[in-house]
Design goal:
heterodimer; A: Helix Hairpins; HSP40/DNAj peptide-binding domain; 8 helices; 11 strands; B: alpha+beta; Multidrug-efflux Transporter Regulator, Chain: A, Domain 2; two-stranded antiparallel sheet; 12% strand
């Protein structure tokens, strides 16, 4: 078992005051909260900080932890000295806001397992026959999965209560059909696939929230798709018939003459399929050929001389 | 670690923007009392359909919003109004990042 340096995790000195610890916690909690943070390891860090705070905010636990001595280093192989907790009685397990299932082996060795109190949310129904909890998970799919429908295998990890009252992580895989036309943020409800009921109560449901992997060139906005499509200046100016990629295959696209940078062309019902199919918006990106040859330079020079074009006329400058 | 394999392909119910869930379903899935949901409605975080209280129905995305607000409130020590503000800012950031990704892909 590795020693955990709770002071280091919280970024405070060993002699920090309770107020300093509280301030450090608030700051770190905001930084690593999984709903707020964009950092890849946010959830892991958030749990570590929560565990450190669980110990340091409680003067009893902090004193006991301090008694282990200041010579331990984070990650060092650790065995609690015998009778290290003599004289302490940790009141009520102390599981307040933290989720007991998230605590490290180090924490459990020192302060015990709190049993499965599930302090989260806090509002429990007190009946002997109880419906299982609903579970929530996310599933990441590709844009094409929404076009054709797909089957995704997902692995869920959830805390499970053993008969002797311990919490173990249990893992299970499900194959789930992803319906055609699904959009980011929509959910799939799987009745009876949540937590098991207690005392003969029915099982809870499983809610899967769908997220899309970023696509290299299609952006999803609700049911609509956006595609930035590069066009040559003469295609935009003179009009042209060009090819455009769509998730369901290449289509012919007519560029109207005198189109300009950023013009949006709507391809009706080429967005995500469904009861109300979305549209595909092609956004023209006029792309200049480089002036890297004599011929190209001559053509640009010719345009300059003959067009008398001032793109800044509306700004009142030339 | 217990491991159970399930080879069966499960077909669930799609909750889309037209789907509505009942007050009871929302309370159950977010593990809260109706009073908590009422408070979220008062903050304007959730907008129930126009029916008397117990018959309220919510858009399916209310589940996600409720869960985020409750987590923010629990973990960050903010009140409901603060959590509501954070939720709206988070949604705004999400929208802007999506646009930014598109602009960057040019």
């Amino acid at each position: 078992m590795e020693f955990k340096d709770y002071y280091k995790t919280m970024g405070v000195a060993r002699d920090a005051t309770q107020d300093e610890i509280k301030r450090a916690y608030r700051k770190l909690a905001r930084k690593y909260h999984p709903d707020v943070s964009k950092e890849a390891d946010a959830e892991e860090r958030f749990k570590e900080v929560g565990e450190a705070y669980e110990v340091l905010k409680d003067p009893e636990k902090r004193l006991a932890y301090d008694q282990l001595g200041a010579n331990w280093r984070a990650g060092q192989e650790f065995r609690p000295p015998p009778d290290w907790d003599a004289g302490f009685e940790f009141s009520g397990g102390g599981y307040t806001d933290a989720d007991a299932a998230d605590h490290s082996a180090f924490f459990e060795e020192l302060f015990g397992r709190g049993g499965y109190t599930r302090a989260r949310g806090g509002e429990r129904r007190r009946t002997f026959r109880m419906r299982g909890e609903d579970h929530h998970a996310k599933v990441l799919i590709d844009l094409v999965d929404s076009f054709s429908g797909a089957t995704r295998s997902i692995t869920l990890r959830m805390p499970e209560l053993t008969e002797d009252g311990h919490v173990v992580a249990s893992e299970r895989s499900l194959n789930v059909r992803i319906p055609k036309g699904i959009r980011p943020g929509q959910q799939i409800r799987l009745v009876g696939q949540g937590g098991p009921g207690i005392g003969g109560g029915e099982s809870g449901d499983l809610y899967l929230e769908v997220e899309f992997r970023d696509h290299p060139y299609f952006r999803v906005d609700g049911a609509d798709l956006y595609l930035n499509l590069p066009v040559a200046p003469w295609e935009a100016a003179l009009g042209a018939s060009i090819k455009a990629p769509t998730p369901s295959g290449v289509v012919d696209l007519k560029i109207p003459a005198n189109s300009n940078q950023g013009r949006r062309l709507r391809l009706k019902e080429r967005g995500l399929p469904g009861k109300k199919p979305g549209d595909l918006y092609v956004v023209l990106q006029v792309t200049l050929p480089p002036a890297d040859s004599e011929a190209a330079k001559r053509l640009y020079q010719q345009m300059k001389d003959q067009l008398g074009f001032n793109p800044r006329a509306h700004l009142g400058v030339s | 670690m217990a491991k159970t394999e399930l080879k069966l392909v499960l077909t669930g119910e799609l909750l889309d923007e037209d789907s509505e869930i009942t007050l009871l379903e929302l309370c159950r899935t977010c593990d809260v009392k109706a009073e908590t949901i009422e408070a979220l409605v008062e903050q304007g975080i959730l907008e129930p359909s126009d029916r008397p209280g117990a018959l309220w129905r919510f858009r399916a995305d209310s589940i996600k919003r409720t869960r985020i607000v409750l987590r923010l409130q629990r973990d960050l020590g903010v009140n409901l109004a603060g959590a509501a503000l954070a939720l709206e800012l988070l949604e705004r950031i999400e929208e802007l990042s999506a646009r930014l990704r598109q602009v960057r892909s040019l």
